[in-house]
Specification:
By secondary structure, this protein is of the alpha/beta class. The chain has 2 domains: 163 residues, 3-Layer(aba) Sandwich (D-Maltodextrin-Binding Protein, domain 2); 97 residues, D-Maltodextrin-Binding Protein, domain 2 (3-Layer(aba) Sandwich). It contains 11 helices and 11 strands. Strands 2-1-3-10-4-11 form a 6-stranded mixed sheet, with helices on both faces. Helix 2 crosses helix 9 and helix 4 runs parallel beside helix 11.
Length: 324
């Protein structure tokens, strides 16, 4: 064999060795702790849901699963950090409707591209929106509220937990679907918005069931309708049942990885997540927290992301919703 042939043969063997080593590394996945970046503070809704899944997921994967809270800029700081992490399956990110579907329209200088920089693993679940109103408002159901608002165009104020948040955009979608006119009052978080609602400073608010349940139960605010049935408010009619067709806004929680993560690693994660979400105790725990378990495949999750970017991004651009 001549020298050039020997060189070519050596290069082929070396390449084969690299591929074999890479394949072996993927096959052994996971071989060390897996970190899930939660881009919101500890104790918040997203953090609580992922911590519910954390224990079951680490038992299924056979390695520790660590929650790393990296809050800031509506979840975009932590999401950007995870998107730029090594694509080896050891750094994942808790994805939400706001950080993935509406972020590009709300944050002009987003540090990541939701479609190009991240790969879907699967969804965990969804949570609906509840419309609550001040108890001082002379309405007892959704139809009465819409009639009242139409009789006083521009006179009612609705709060949100911040400019460009899902709470804000859900209310804007509601305005589009009903033809009512309300003035937006943005707050920095749910607590001050709730306080002003109970004091009558604002008249309406969209938020998730768990955040609102204690105040509704104490009759400090009145719940009128919910976008999807929930165990937290089993008695509450949906918007569709109340006559608002095709109004089913929801927040979803999902798991994503850096875009170049190997497909076999993504599949291992997907299989583990899907199995975990079949656990009866976990499902009951999630339902008690106002989240309906939902395990979508990466392909179905990707379709949902595209559809929601069009929906929420479109609303955000239409009302020029920019983050504070």
């Amino acid at each position: 064999m001549n020298p050039s042939s020997l060189v070519r043969a050596g290069l082929k063997l070396a390449a084969a060795g690299v591929l074999t080593a890479a394949a072996a590394a993927h096959a052994a996945y996971p071989a060390k702790p897996v970190t899930i970046v939660v881009p919101f503070p500890a104790g918040g809704g997203t953090d609580v849901i992922f911590r519910s899944v954390q224990v079951k997921l680490q038992a299924e994967l056979g390695v520790p699963v660590i929650i790393d809270n990296r809050a800031g800029a509506g979840g975009t700081v932590g999401t950007g950090y995870a998107a730029k992490a090594a694509p080896d399956g050891y750094t994942l990110v808790a994805a939400t409707t706001t950080t993935i579907a509406s972020a590009q329209a709300v944050y002009p200088k987003l540090p990541y591209d939701p479609l190009a920089d991240l790969a879907p693993v699967g969804t965990l679940g969804t949570t609906p929106f509840v419309l609550v109103v001040s108890p001082e408002l002379p309405v007892k159901n959704l139809a009465e509220f819409i009639r009242y608002a139409k009789a006083k165009p521009g006179a009612l104020n609705y709060g949100s937990i911040g400019n460009g948040t899902a709470s804000h955009l859900a209310a804007e979608l509601f305005k589009q679907r009903t033809g009512i006119d309300m003035t937006h009052i943005p707050y920095r978080g749910a607590a001050p918005a709730q306080t002003d609602l109970m004091a009558g400073q604002i008249q309406a608010l969209f938020d998730n069931p768990v955040a609102l349940a204690p105040q509704v139960r104490a009759s400090r605010m009145r719940a009128l309708a919910i976008s999807q049935p929930s165990a937290v408010f089993p008695e509450l009619p949906t918007f569709e049942a109340s006559g608002i067709k095709d109004f089913k806004p929801e927040l979803w929680y999902g798991l994503m990885a850096p875009a170049a993560t190997p497909k076999d690693v993504l599949q291992r994660l997907r299989t583990a997540l899907d199995k975990v979400l079949q656990d009866r105790n976990l499902r009951a725990d999630m339902l008690s927290k106002g989240v309906a378990p939902q395990s979508l495949s990466p392909e179905a999750f990707a379709q949902k992301i595209h559809a929601d970017i069009a929906l929420w991004g479109g609303i955000a651009r239409a009302v020029n919703a920019k983050a504070d």
